[in-house]
Write a structure and sequence with these properties.
The complex is a heterotrimer of chains A (531), B (347) and C (362).
Chain A: E1 6-15, E2 18-28, E3 33-37, H1 44-51, H2 55-58, E4 64-69, E5 72-74, H3 79-85, E6 87-90, H4 102-106, E7 113-114, H5 119-122, E8 128-129, H6 131-145, H7 160-173, E9 179-183, H8 191-206, E10 210-215, H9 218-224, E11 227-232, E12 235-241, H10 247-255, E13 275-284, E14 291-299, E15 303-307, H11 314-321, E16 327-333, E17 336-337, H12 343-348, E18 351-354, H13 358-362, H14 369-381, E19 385-388, E20 391-394, H15 396-410, H16 426-438, E21 444-448, H17 456-473, E22 476-480, H18 484-490, E23 493-498, E24 501-506, H19 512-519, H20 523-530
Parallel strand pairs in A: 3-10, 3-11, 6-9, 9-10, 15-22, 15-23, 18-21, 21-22
Antiparallel strand pairs in A: 1-2, 1-4, 4-5, 7-8, 11-12, 13-14, 13-16, 16-17, 19-20, 23-24
Chain B: H1 2-12, H2 14-32, H3 37-56, H4 58-63, H5 72-88, H6 93-121, H7 126-147, E1 167-169, E2 183-186, E3 189-192, H8 193-210, H9 213-223, H10 225-230, H11 235-261, E4 263-265, H12 274-283, H13 293-317, H14 323-341
Antiparallel strand pairs in B: 1-4, 2-3
Helix pairs in contact in B: 2-13, 3-8, 3-11, 3-12, 3-13, 5-6, 5-7, 5-11, 6-11, 9-11, 12-13, 12-14, 13-14
Chain C: H1 2-16, H2 18-34, H3 38-57, H4 60-64, H5 73-90, H6 94-121, H7 127-149, E1 172-174, E2 188-190, E3 193-195, H8 197-214, H9 217-227, H10 229-234, H11 239-265, E4 267-269, H12 277-287, H13 297-322, H14 325-355
Antiparallel strand pairs in C: 1-4, 2-3
Helix pairs in contact in C: 2-13, 3-8, 3-11, 3-12, 3-13, 5-6, 5-7, 5-11, 6-7, 6-11, 9-11, 12-13, 12-14, 13-14
Classes of the chains: A alpha/beta (531), B mainly alpha (347), C mainly alpha (362).
Chain lengths: 531, 347, 362
Amino acid sequence: MSKPILQLIDISKDYYGNQVLKKVNLTVQPGEVHAIVGENGAGKSTLMNIIFGMPVIHNTGGFSGQIIFDGEPVNIDSPKVAMEKGIGMVHQEFMLLPGFTITENLKLNREITKHNLISKFLGDKMKSLDMESMRKDARKALDTLGVDIDEMLPVEGLPVGHKQFVEIAREIDKTNMKLLVFDEPTAVLTEIEADLFLKAVKKLSNEGIAILFITHRLNEVMQVADNITVIRDGEVVGRLSREEATVEDMARLMVGRKIDRVEKSKKVNNGSQENILEIRNLKVDMPGEVVKNVNLDVKKGEILGIGGLAGHGKIGIANGIMGLYPASGQVVFKGSKIKLNNPNDALSRGMAFVSEDRRGVGLLLDESIEKNIAITAIQVQGKFLTKILGINFVLNTKIREHANKTIKELDIRCTGPEQPVRRLSGGNQQKVCIARAITLEPDLLFVSEPTRGIDVGAKKIVLDLLLKLNQEMGMTIVITSSELAELRSICDRIAIIYDGKLEGILPPDADDTDFGLMMAGGYSDMAKEVS
Amino acid sequence: MSQKIKKFLDKFGYTRIIIILFLIMLFIAAFALELQTDSLISGILNRAGMNMILTLAMVPSIQSGTGLNFGLSVGILCGVLGAVLSIAMNLTGWQAFLIANGLGIVFAIIAGYIYGLLLNRVKTQEMLIGTYAGFSVVSGMCMFWILAPFKSPKMIWPYGGRGLRVTVSLEDTFDKILNNFLLREYNGIEVPWGLYAYIILLCLAVWLFSRSKTGIAMQTAGSNPRFAESCGINVDGMRIIGTILSTVLGAMGILVYAQSYGFLQLYNAPLYMAFPAVAAILIGGASVHKASIAHVIIGTFLFQALLVVALPVTNAVLPEGNLSEVVRIIISNGIIVYALTRIGGGE
Amino acid sequence: MMGKQSSWNIKKTVSTNIVPVVFTVLCLVGAIIAEASPFFLLSSVITRLARNLLLVFSLIIPVVTGLGLNFGIVLGAMAAQIALIAVVHWNITGLGGFTVAALLSVPISILFGWLTGKVLNKAKGNEMITSMMLGFFANGLYQLLFLFILGGVIPMKNDTIMLPSGIGIKNTVSLKGLKYALDNVIMISHDSLAIPVFTFIITALLALAIRFLLQTKLGQELRCVGQDMNIAATSGIDVDKMRIIAVILSTVLAAWGQLIHLQNIGILQTYGSHEQVGLFAVASILIGGASVTKATIGQAVLGTFLFHLLFIISPMAGQKLVGEPQVGEYFRAFVAYGVIGVSLGLHAWQKQQARKNKLEDI
């Protein structure tokens, strides 16, 4: 075997004490297609950012370990260095200018120029663009990929798949490209486009370019990857070659089991068969979390978990039902249809929502705790108001009373009800969000990413609080979370969303393989194969 | 220690400190030049009262999230139109003032609603569009002033010439009606209590509104539209309410201004009238996102005091030219530019 | 089939160029009402085109760079007027005087443009209103300079252009020695029709220079910044620097534009000549069909033509229609403000629409 193009030795990285990579080792040979698979938050993206020298790494204290590229230890401290060494990266979101042609995009800030009369006096910036040569290069790069699109078309209006190819062509057009990193390259592609793409990948690897491929589409991994590394919680948990790998193995490795189930004194009501909420054909246009067609029932008194990988639409469901993003379909709550795209209707019928975007949507950061807690109830239910001369005025005494009570009940650590929520810790901010929702005394509570961005101790407190609300107040709760372990610790059932649709529903103690397969979208395929 | 001072300065706002220092300097100069302090103070009280409501009109628009109301001239024109009609009806005194206000408010509600609809279509560019909407309405009304078939001799040109006069005297209608109401003199300092009672009344109304259910909804819509939506608040509706209130206050504000000035200014006069109001509230410490009644009062007093004191001081130092006018242009526009460069800041 | 195809094309052409079409109709109707002689209109418009084209051209580069319409060209006009005052003071006349003024205005407008660019970089997303307010603010400083500093702080003695007190510049300064300095180099006159050919040649050369510039490496970087600052930055382009360069170029061109304008008029309104420069130029280019994100030389020419045609016609039409030329004057102010308001409004609205409602795509 030839000498490896890339070697990562004992790479570790923490963000402010939060360990995201632990002594990761990885070796890639020239011409090898190497897949890295893992759940969201497993550390894949951080690893790629380190290889590509992204500023986010170096602004947060760098990393430890060593990178050996092309036989030499290297210090990649900016994307520019990475590019010069011959590392290219195709980003998840497109870095293309819609108003430029494919050729112009391909050659962005790497234009081929030629001297003219004026540039001789005023310098290189005044050089003319050599469109003919640029065009030839673009054609060559596109041909290498085997794509037949006109290189002079504007990017605007191109199908998503073609945009992806333009991005790849841009990378391979760079001279001395030795290693190409793909971050979820097929996530936005149709099946046919994905096939074309995978063919192109093979073609590139045949030309000796090594490819690092981050994905969670396990079937694709099986199609193109020579070797597979599975990462979970920042650690390498498995190295497989294609021959020895199976989709089931990868799925099991990816998910693993991390947290023990919180002991739940089993309630009587979670056996209820009555549906409190019925979702039919729900579509939600939430950027980055598009819901394509979801059918799902929520049983009265249960805690339902909604899981899935980022970008597959699990977050969109609650946001759509609560009217925060444009939605269509039919949602029946307690036997009657709710008006979609109307937050007021959803709220006044007895649903409440704790948003995943705590600082953006969940809180008025510069306002007091008490105002944050009371405001929805004031607006939706007319609580804490008094009428003087036909005008509704707010009764501060009542708000204060309620806020004090809630602060005590939920144990919100603060200097008092007048403290602005901006100064609270993440966990306490989350409690304020929950306090605002339960002030509405809802029958159904949606909670999105309840533990995102809060520290470990506070996580447990928040989850316990949700459990308490469910068991003591009989509140039906729907938790959306990227952390499967957390869902498995308190939910009665877990629905997995894949590609904007419901992939399946599992009990919390189901097998790791099943969870892994569902999240990777392989479950229905497997089921097809079996039947 | 120096850290503490810096923190305090940051909180208080450098611009406000600069303005206050400048003002103190002017006062010292005024004393040194032995200018009549009683007339200066009377002047400040008068000018501040005259402009206060126009500045107050910025509060609902900032609170509802449409930013500084650069299109305040829309409201101002409603008030002017109300006054013109009340003169045309040959009304005088309180009757004229009240009818002018009544009509002005009705026009302002209609105009504010339309203006609000417009601003909802151009979110994030409200201030720019508002400026040009205001400008074009002013020049559109110029055509109206020429063509309108008013006959009242108080308003048309005495010797031929078509249309209304550029400035219409209010001598027979409601000149100084608030200013002279309960006007008291203390050691040569004139305090227009009636004017201030009216101002306090309007400020109180705005404050009370901010404590009402709708007022809270409006502020929420302004400070975080996504949050407001998630609370079931109709954000666009609240923005329209804010715009209507601002326009109504603009109409009422120009009538306060006109009665104090003694003249009604037509044609191009309202073109730039939004700018001093914008500058005043910014000097008071407001930002594009946050404003309170305290900002209105502090800002109007500081800004007007500056103008009132600067005039005699600069005239004493430099009798030629109008240095105080130039200072006004620099300060008021400078502070607006400064505020605009700070929008992206914060979080 | 063919007929259908072409009629559809006409419809499309009209709807994409709705603004210039509407204004063409407006001008035609106005001309008919005013019963103006086409010859008179043509000769007046030619004079005004020569006077104003370069000022309108100066808006193009910032639009391409994504700064929107640069109301800050007022600062360029001020730079030109500072240079003019100096040239008049030194009593340099003719083409030589004009050339000195043009050269002198360059460093001043580079400085102004650099400052403007710095400020606009701090106001990303609000460049247009900031550039407008900056124009007002600079006007205050300009007055401070010309009313109090010249003769007051900086010693200057000149009875013809200074106020009797010896401090400050007079309200109007005659540019007798510079009048037609550029126009007269090559001037074709016939009857009352006068075509300042040389001025047109210079303007055309500068238009070509803008065009050339946008096709260079620098131009490519400017266009890239204009489309997406983020992508430009990730591709290694210094976004802030490019934006400053765009504003500087715009300011310099505006200064030259104002010089051309004033040498044709022959009188400098010291405190007024520059004030409406931004407004009229912006209204012109918008009437030509440009938008906040797209502007071409062709649109600038067409827009300037239509705007000034309307400028000439509306008082005449006002006179005929209601016996009051004032009405026409207010009407054109209304049009200038209105067209800016409407096109900026439409642009903001379209942007908002694009963000919304993509549900059908799913």
